Amino acid sequence: MRINITKTGYRTKTAEVNEGATVRDAIGAVRANTEGYAIRVNSLEADMGTRLNKGDTVQLVAKIKGGADINVKVVKFGTSTKSVELKEGSSIRDALRVAKYGQDGFTLSLNGAPAQLNSPVNDGDIVQLVPKVKGGN
After folding, report:
1. Could you tell me whether strands 126-131 and 70-76 are parallel, antiparallel, or unpaired per DSSP bridges?
2. Nearest Cα to Cα of residue 69 among 121, 110, 10
3. Whole-angstrom Cα distance, residue 50 to residue 68?
4. 3-6, Cβ contacts within 8 angstroms, sequence gap of 24 or more
5. How many CB atoms lie within 10 A of CB 32?
6. Contact indicator for 59, 26 with CB cutoff of 8 Å
């Protein structure tokens, strides 16, 4: 069966594993290093022993030192989406730093509303980097 594996800061890989395979099997198939990453399957917390189903997505989400309290998605329009784990009280600036995205050439939105670098983020929020519109008469 085919399993997708995503890792913060890297391209998605596909692994072919047998029925009843675990996260460990899928990670081993693509030779991914899990050190410093939290494991999720279809956005739910998981571990190396979690059983997988056809079409599942294993997500390796970068951890912040000291543990994480919240999960935030960072969407860079036209290129990629990354899930990052942050400490409670973090800001968009923190989310961009962990996702390794710069803000140059983009405007920020938080859950679809205009935002600033110092805007606080909460569990489940979506930070969007939207290309700035140029030109016109």
Report:
1. parallel
2. 121
3. 21
4. 3/52, 3/54, 3/55, 3/56, 3/57, 3/58, 4/55, 4/56, 4/57, 4/58, 5/30, 5/32, 5/57, 5/58, 5/59, 5/60, 6/57, 6/58, 6/59, 6/60
5. 17
6. no
Q: What's the structural domain count of the chain?
A: 2
The domain that holds 125 is classified in CATH as 3.10.20.30
- Which residue's entry shows tokens 């030192």? 65
Q: Would you state the structure tokens that stand for residue 137, as one six-digit string?
A: 């008469």
Residue 108 lies in a domain: yes
- Do residue 83 and residue 102 come from a single domain? yes
Give pLDDT tens digits for 19-78.
Answer: 999 999 999 999 988 887 888 898 788 899 999 999 999 988 877 655 567 889 999 987
Provide the domain limits for residue 56. Answer: 2-60
